Amino acid sequence: MLTVDFSRFPLAPGDRVLDLGCGAGRHAFECYRRGAQVVALDQNGDEIREVAKWFAAMKEAGEAPAGASATAMEGDALALPFPDDSFDVVIISEVMEHIPDDKGVLAEMVRVLRPGGRIAVTVPRYGPEKVCWALSDAYHEVEGGHIRIYRGDELLGKMREAGLEPYGTHHAHGLHSPYWWLKCAFGVDNDKALPVQAYHKLLVWDIMKKPLATRLAERALNPVIGKSFVVYATKPHLPETSAAAGPVAEGASESTKAPAKATAKSGAKAPAKSAAKTSAKTSAGAAK
Questions:
Q1: Which of 147, 212, 244, 255 is deepest in the core (most CB within 10 A)?
Q2: What pLDDT was estimated at residue 142?
Q3: Start-to-end Cα distance in the chain
Q4: Which DSSP symbol is given to 218?
């Protein structure tokens, strides 16, 4: 289950991609299938080892095109082990709500993103998240849990302060908000409650089969109760000074250049059934 919409955030084969706080690797796997050179980074060593196994399995199964590469590594989001301007694309999905120094994380992402590069940030949406917090303290008062709820304009402001230029937003996973409300109402660790079990089966079926009815339902629900808020942005190019300009350089250059366009790769290979099943169960039943 992807939160980033790659029709709005296209990748070109060979793009250098950092999936920061990759978790189980869902976005990293999709980027790998699309021919990118992917680095999946997370501080959780157990998850990174699992992601590395899946990368190896995908390569063996021929799910990634020639020229694609994938690396899974442990790392600290506040001290990324990469030089400046290392990546064309950075994705950070459902991570920033966990980190006290979110401005520090944004600064590191901007540092390793090349000028003209693109970034996708997703966080839990304010309204549905407030309901979860109201229904259950255990939902957020846990080690490594959610420490803040973002308003959309707050996240956009922080991204602009970090030097990014947002160019698009949307909401995702409208079908998933009721599931988490049920989880919070019956107990976040209580997977045996019948309403929770029934809704979980619905979500797994939806992810696996993608029937038209639920696709239309989610499209209608996303603007109203979409679980995630997604922002796409670019890192501006450095200003260019005209060669003919004097010391004052009045009106000598444009402040930014238009970001380079990336073309989405069409016909991306569908995931193997085993990988899709694992992803469906993980997406429907677990939260970071």
A1: 147
A2: 83
A3: 14
A4: H
- Residues 201-224, mean pLDDT to the nearest whole number: 95
How many angstroms separate the CA atoms of 232 and 185, rounded?
33
**For 159-181, what is the mean pLDDT?**
97
For residue 41, the cross-strand partners are 20, 73
Does pLDDT of 229 surpass 90?
yes
pTM reported for the whole predicted model: 0.82
Residue ranges in the chain assigned as alpha helix (H): 26-33, 45-61, 102-112, 126-135, 152-161, 176-186, 194-209, 212-225, 273-285
**Cβ-based neighbours of 280, under 8 Å, separated by 6 or more:** 1, 203, 204, 207, 208
Q: What are all long-range contacts of 179-187, with beta carbons under 8 Å and residues at least 24 apart? A: 179/203, 179/284, 180/128, 180/132, 180/139, 180/227, 180/287, 181/128, 181/131, 181/132, 181/135, 183/136, 183/139, 184/131, 184/132, 184/135, 184/136, 184/139, 185/135, 185/136, 187/136, 187/138
The pLDDT value given to residue 240 = 60
Q: Identify whether the C-beta of residue 75 lies closer than 8 Å to the C-beta of residue 41.
A: yes
User: What's the CA gap between 256 and 243, in Å, rounded?
Assistant: 17
Quick one: angle between helices 273-285 and 194-209, nearest 10?
A: 140
Give the least confident one: 77-81, 191-195, 281-285. Answer: 281-285
